[in-house]
UniProtKB/TrEMBL annotation:
Protein's organism: Micromonospora chokoriensis
Positions with a binding annotation for glyoxylate: Y112, R147, H226, R229
This protein's name: 4-hydroxymandelate oxidase
Record family assignment: Belongs to the FMN-dependent alpha-hydroxy acid dehydrogenase family.
Entry cofactors: FMN
Domain FMN hydroxy acid dehydrogenase per the UniProt entry, residue ranges: 1-329
C-alpha cells in the first residue's frame, strides 16, 4: 500500500495518545473464568437493532476502501457476508451503497449529519432503498480531528479517479462531506421523522449523553472515540463503557469500538456490558492484504478466538458473561 494511504488508515489525531490507549485498556483487564457450568453447545449469535448476527463483531464504518484494495467496499461487504455479520458502510465509501449491497450481507449506513437537511434526507432515503437496515449517526465529529500524519503527508483529499460515491446529489455531483457543528439533539429528533430505520448514535462516551440518547428514542449507542481520530486525549472506550452501560440501564443495546484486536478483547467488552463490538483497522488490514478473502479471514479469526475464549471463560453464550468476570490490574 502507498505509505501515505497506510498512514491515513493507521493514524489518529494529535499525538495519537487515544489510538494507543484504546488497545492498552484491554491489556489492563484480566478475565476471571467460571468452571463447570457452560455445558452444552456454544452459541455466538446475537441480534442488534433487529439485525441477526452470527457473532457479536461488526465491521465499523471506515472511509476510502478502494485505497486499501481495488475491489473496495464491495470486497469488505463480501467478507462480512461470508461470516454472517453486518458491515456499517461509511458515508465516505468509495463505491455506491447500491453496489456494496450486491454482496448480499446485512448493511447499516453511517451518516455524518450534513447542514443541508434536504440532502441529508436524500442520502438517508438512498441508503434505505439500497436495503440498509439501520442508520449509524456519527456524533463525535462537529469538526474534523487534526490528523498529523495526513497533514505531514499532504493527504487532504481522495486522489483523482476516486470519489465519495454516496455524496452524489440528485444531479450526480459529488458533494464534500461537511462536519456540522450546528447539529444538536434536535437533529436526532428530525432524523427519526425522516426514516423508519433504527438509529444508533456512534461516539458516545459520557453517561449523561447515553441517557439523552435513550430519551431521544434511539435504538442503540456505540461507545467510540472514532479510533482516536477525533479528540486526542479522549478516554479509552473500554474505560468509558461501564458508566454508559449503567446509564442506559438495559433500555437499549450498548456497542463498543476501538482497540478490539482479538477474541479475548471481545470477551472483556461483552462481560462489561457491550452487546457487540465493531472493528475498524483490523478489517482494513485484512482488506489490504487479501480483498474479500482477507476481510473474511480477519473476521473468522476473531470469531474463532471468541468461541475459544468463551469456552475457557465458562460461558456458553455472550450473555452468560458477567462484569465480575473482569478485573483491572
Ligand atoms: C481509516 C479509518 C476511517 C474511518 N472512517 C470513518 C467514517 O467514515 N465514519 C465513522 O463514523 N467512523 C470512521 N472511522 C472510525 C471507525 O468507525 C471506528 O470508530 C474505529 O476505527 C474503531 O477503532 P479500531 O480501528 O481500533 O477498531 C474510521 C476509522 C479509521 C481507522
Ligand atoms: C475521510 C473522513 C470523512 C473519514 C475519516 O477518516 C474518519 O472518520 O476518521
Amino acid at each position: 500500500m502507498d505509505p501515505v494511504h497506510q498512514d491515513f488508515f493507521e493514524g489518529g489525531a494529535g499525538r495519537e495518545r487515544t489510538v494507543a490507549a484504546n488497545e492498552r485498556a484491554f491489556q489492563r483487564r484480566w478475565i476471571v473464568p467460571r468452571v463447570l457450568r457452560a455445558t452444552g453447545d456454544r452459541d455466538l449469535r446475537t441480534t442488534v437493532a433487529g439485525t441477526p448476527l452470527a457473532a457479536p463483531v461488526l465491521v465499523a464504518p471506515t472511509a476510502f476502501h478502494r485505497l486499501a484494495h481495488p475491489d473496495g467496499e464491495t470486497a469488505t461487504a463480501r467478507g462480512a457476508a461470508a461470516v454472517g455479520t453486518a458491515m456499517v458502510v461509511s458515508m465516505a465509501a468509495t463505491q455506491p451503497v447500491e453496489e456494496i449491497a450486491s454482496a448480499g450481507g446485512p448493511l447499516w449506513f453511517q451518516l455524518y449529519p450534513q447542514p443541508d437537511l434536504d440532502f441529508t434526507e436524500y442520502v438517508v432515503k438512498r441508503a434505505e432503498s439500497a436495503g440498509c437496515r439501520a442508520l449509524v449517526v456519527t456524533v463525535d465529529s462537529p469538526v474534523f480531528g487534526r490528523r498529523e500524519r495526513d497533514l505531514r503527508n499532504g493527504f487532504t483529499d481522495l486522489p483523482s479517479g476516486y470519489a465519495c460515491e454516496n455524496m452524489r446529489d440528485a444531479a450526480g455531483r459529488v458533494r464534500s462531506i461537511a462536519m456540522d457543528a450546528t447539529a444538536g439533539w434536535d437533529r436526532i429528533a428530525w432524523l427519526r421523522g425522516v426514516t423508519g430505520l433504527p438509529i444508533l448514535l456512534k461516539g458516545i462516551l459520557h453517561p449523561a449523553d447515553a441517557r439523552l440518547a435513550v430519551e431521544h428514542g434511539v435504538a442503540g449507542v456505540i461507545v467510540s472515540n472514532h479510533g482516536g481520530r477525533q479528540l486526542d486525549g479522549a478516554i479509552p472506550t473500554l474505560d468509558a463503557l461501564p458508566a454508559v452501560v449503567a446509564a442506559v440501564d438495559g433500555q437499549i443495546p450498548v456497542l463498543l469500538d476501538g482497540g478490539v484486536r482479538c477474541g479475548t478483547d471481545v470477551v472483556v467488552a461483552l462481560a462489561l456490558g457491550a452487546r457487540a463490538v465493531l472493528v475498524g483497522r483490523p478489517v482494513v488490514r485484512g482488506l489490504a492484504a487479501g480483498g474479500a478473502v482477507g476481510v473474511r479471514e480477519a473476521l473468522e479469526r476473531l470469531a474463532t478466538e471468541l468461541d475459544l475464549a468463551l469456552a475457557l471463560a465458562g460461558a456458553r453464550r455472550p450473555v452468560d458473561l458477567t462484569p465480575d468476570q473482569v478485573v483491572t490490574r
